[in-house]
Design a protein that fits this description.
Radius of gyration: 23 Å
Number of helices: 17
Structural class: alpha+beta
Strand content: 15-25%
Largest sheet: 9 strands, mixed
Distance between the termini: 37 Å
Length: about 525
């Protein structure tokens, strides 16, 4: 009798054959798909990684994650609040249109406007001005010494192409609005999109007119979402895919024991955490009526201390995680080991906190969780729900594919949720500005989905942004994290580990931000 995994792998063989796989093709599988080809529509690592092979920013990253010239060849501050970017000449979009300053001004306005999921990257930019065809100035509201770092995931689109294709505004995932940029792409990057079938496969072809060097020898990449863990592992072991991620933690040894595959592992900069609606006077999805229990710090702390994080690390993550008390982890500027001390797991103390807050019998609440985005995401949520049941909190777990999960929580249609975050600047300011400051309509706190708010933390975040003295800046980051920890603003869980399954005939570069640049992938001869 053929197993379901084997049958699915055979179906995958047919799909890959239909995609026109050749000898210089690398077949990549992931547990999920990029939800859109629009690089401004979702501030998610997988989305930005996939589209980052097609589109490019002004400032890129080297293999060691240091800054590298991309569509800008150089940058400098001409005053405390103005940056001059010299643009690369001779670059064309995939349709042959020349890249100029007009495209930068357009793209910066687009990423800052309605529907964009990357507003938090640009909320402190006052104006973008064209100097000439190959130079632009960016003026910020306050001094912003890490602006080049912030721009590494702000990708440039063709003004002409967007206007022609009615794609001048980003695809708004919250509202389910689509446009041409959802399904077609026209970037300047090392790969072009040859075919797009959402949630089935996307085929990329090497850009023969790329301005830069493509180190790898791969000609085509077939990207296929395979949500089922067992099927994904079977596809790798059978040779039907060449690269896949993530490898389920329980299968790492199996992948390494195969003569043809290996697991490429390493630390990841992503922090997994729980958030709670702290703004509404009554939760949308709870048995408590007339008030919001999450507005009470004692309730938030009770949830925190009810979570057996060591148990999750051992049984769910199989040791492939680092427990955390902070919203950033090692490798992020501003992380201090001495601050990384969790409150103790103590179910009895948690019960007392709930009783003191007026909930001696607990209450019921719905928890939103993806089941195909982070390592063992649904299982983490199941474990949290089981932990909370011990303090008489009944969790109605709503685990779903990220295609419906992200639009739901990003429009704040949630009371209690799980999320992961990798600071794209590798600096604590990114997490503070996106996750912890009070949300506003300019993009600050864009992913503070429960609307935690402390004006003192906001004030510090603004100072951190503009402070150039490293000692003073580090002290302010520490103070901001101390405030957030004392408030129990979120419930940090852990940093997950990277695990990619790779055929031994493939050479690639694994980055700590979990991006996968195709230009550094090769098939060994």
């Amino acid at each position: 009798m053929r197993t379901k995994s084997a049958a699915t792998v055979l179906a995958l063989v047919g799909a890959l054959a239909a995609a026109g796989v050749n000898a210089q093709t690398i077949r990549v599988a992931n547990q999920g798909d990029a939800l859109s080809l629009d690089p401004h529509s979702l501030n998610e690592s997988l989305q930005l990684s996939v589209t980052g092979n097609v589109y490019e920013p002004l400032v890129g990253r080297n293999k060691d994650l240091s800054l590298a010239p991309a569509l800008a060849t150089s940058w400098k501050q001409t005053s405390p609040t103005v940056w001059r970017f010299e643009l690369r000449k001779g670059v064309t979009f995939h349709d042959g249109t020349p890249f100029t300053a007009d495209d930068v001004v357009f793209s910066m306005a687009r990423v800052s406007g309605e529907g964009s999921d990357l507003k938090s990257n640009t909320n402190d930019i006052k104006e973008v001005r064209k100097v000439n065809d190959f130079a632009i100035d960016i003026e910020t509201r306050e001094p912003f010494p890490i602006l080049p770092d912030v721009l590494t995931t702000v990708y440039m689109l063709s003004k002409k192409w967007c206007e022609t294709n009615n794609a001048t505004k980003p695809v708004d995932r919250r509202k389910g609005i689509e446009n041409t940029a959802s399904f077609k792409a026209n970037g300047t990057g090392p790969f072009r999109v040859r075919e797009r079938q959402p949630n089935v496969r996307t085929t990329f072809s090497r850009n023969a007119t790329y301005w830069g060097k493509i180190e790898g020898n791969v000609q085509d990449v077939v990207f296929t979402p395979i949500g089922n863990d067992a099927t994904r592992v079977a596809a790798l072991l059978s040779g039907e895919v060449d690269v896949m991620e993530p490898v389920p933690v329980q299968d790492i040894a199996r992948v390494n024991s195969s003569p043809n595959t290996k697991a490429v592992t390493g630390p990841e900069l992503r922090t997994i955490f729980l958030g709670m609606d702290q703004k509404r006077d009554e939760l949308l999805y709870s048995s408590v009526k007339g008030k919001n229990p999450f507005k009470d710090k004692r309730v938030r702390q009770a949830f925190y201390q009810a979570i057996d994080i060591d148990g999750i690390q051992k049984t769910v993550m199989r040791g492939a995680s680092n427990n955390t008390a902070l919203m950033v982890g090692p490798g992020i500027n501003g992380f201090l080991p001495e601050q990384n001390k969790r409150l103790p797991y103590d179910a009895e103390a948690a019960k007392k906190l709930l009783a003191d807050a007026g909930y001696p019998a607990g209450f019921e609440v719905t928890m939103n969780c993806p089941n195909d985005r982070y390592v063992n995401d649904a299982r983490i949520c199941q474990a949290v729900a089981a932990n909370l049941a011990r303090i008489n909190v009944k969790v109605n777990l709503q685990a779903e594919t990220k295609g419906t999960y992200f639009p739901k929580i990003l429009r704040r249609d949630t009371s209690f949720y799980l999320l992961g975050w990798t600071p794209t600047t590798y600096d604590a300011h990114n997490a503070l500005n996106a996750l912890m400051v009070c949300p506003d309509d300019k993009g600050a706190g864009q992913f503070n989905l429960g609307a935690y708010c402390n004006p003192k933390l906001d004030e510090l975040t603004k100072k951190i942004q503009s402070e150039t003295d490293k000692t003073k800046r580090s002290a302010m980051i520490k103070e901001a994290f101390d405030i957030h920890t004392a408030d129990v603003g979120h419930l940090p869980l852990h940093q997950q580990a990277l695990a990619w399954g790779v055929s031994k005939k493939i050479t690639l570069v694994q980055l700590a931000d979990n991006y996968m640049p195709f230009k550094w992938m090769s098939i060994n001869k």
